[in-house]
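Handout for the seminar on molecular recognition.
Each group receives one record of this type.
Step one: identify the two inputs.
Step two: read the structure output and locate the region that could contact nicotinamide-adenine-dinucleotide.
Step three: write two sentences on what you found, then compare them with the reference statements printed after the record.
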Amino acid sequence: MRISIFGIGYVGAVSCGCLADLGHTLIGVDLSTEKVALLASGQSPIVEAEISELIAGNVANGRLTATTDVARAVAESDVSFVAVGTPSRADGSVSLDAVDAVLASIGAAIAKKPSAHTVVMRSTVPAGTAETRAIPILEKASGRKLGEGLFYYSNPEFLREGSAVRDFRVPPMTLIGAPEGDDAAILREIYAPITAPVHVVQFKLAESAKHLSNLYHAVKLSFANEAGAVLSALGVDAREAFRIFCEDRALNISSAYLRPGFAFGGSCLPKDTRSFVSLGEQAGVPIPFLQSVMKSNESVIERAFAMIAAHGRQDVAMFGLAFKPGTDDLRESPFVTLAERMIGRGYGLKIFDRSVNVAHLLGANRAYIEKEIPHIERLMAGDVASALSGTGIVVVGHVNGQDRIDLLAALDGQVVIDLAGIAELADLPGIQYQGFCW
Ligand SMILES: NC(=O)c1ccc[n+]([C@@H]2O[C@H](COP(=O)([O-])OP(=O)(O)OC[C@H]3O[C@@H](n4cnc5c(N)ncnc54)[C@H](O)[C@@H]3O)[C@@H](O)[C@H]2O)c1
């Protein structure tokens, strides 16, 4: 395949060397005449393991050239990869100025080209860029419609500087954003020698999966750095503690707890988060990230309440009261907090939770709920039908087994706010469904 790469910085230079090494014909393009001159002479514009040899070898064998001439690069290639920078603006938002400019110049060059051309976004761009920005810019500049001599894919890059060549050759996946019904055959062909799984998804999903990855890496590092500093202040070898922590592949290093939804609660997570934060504060360790965890959780409950309140009516049935299904533990349940919020605002609330029998609650559990919601038994419904009767808004925290079947059968016309992500609810006709973050 004949490929032009726009932007020969860290991502572009590695792509030039590695794609040429896969047997493709590469043209590197940049505004910087210095970088172009270096690449054209067989030298790497970046310092990175293995890349100097790849570039020198492929320039020598004629598979890799470089130019500042956009029209020539587009005319002499079938596919253009965009790998220009997407830096932060002063307010934290991303600057897509270089992306916009390079797309406009590629589009103008496509307008002069008789054959079809494909543009691939490698730069990290926010969700929605393809549909609201990149494709419109390309269509306007080229005078073509997407799918008619103009093709566009989003193909985020996952490499890390320092191990970029290895990461390029063994990526976690090849992620492609494409229009509905397009299986991105051209990119599958380009990456055929790379054995990573290929996922072709909607543009927005591809763009956000990459964004999410970097955000998560930053969150992991902040967690490890702050928690490590607290441990170290307590005289613990933080690296050793983290080594043991990472041994748990069931809950710690796994997809557990990585499903977006409603707030956490129960008798352990809130208590132990507060206690760890308090240890850090007592030791004088700055831990702004860890201090924000409980605030973040409270904001999730606030967001659920705002969704309910936005409907402007107060006849609500809530399914689920304990912090998770199958237990009657109400301590620090986020559903208790949500219920309190509604009661405090004068809502006519009914609650159904098969596992919670207020009369049978004991000890700390009983004391907790009596303090938080006195006379809660008056709000508890004995079955699905009586919970639903006369209610216009149904909040689903959790409901399982026969109760879920009964609920699905009985719903008729209500607003349903789904905090649990129940697939059958989303597809249920005759209700006004609202998913919490899906
Ligand atoms: N660096 C990484 O490790 C890495 C990894 C994955 C993804 N990314 C993403 O890839 C993108 C590129 O990152 P980078 O680190 O390679 O950036 P970089 O700053 O090293 O390189 C960008 C290059 O684009 C060139 N450029 C700007 N406008 C141009 C134009 N109109 N035409 C041609 N060239 C132009 C610049 O001169 C520069 O050489 C960013 O979106 C980044 O977030 C970076």
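Reference statements: Residues 203-233 form the longest helix (31 residues). Residues 2-203 form a domain with the Rossmann fold fold (CATH 3.40.50.720).
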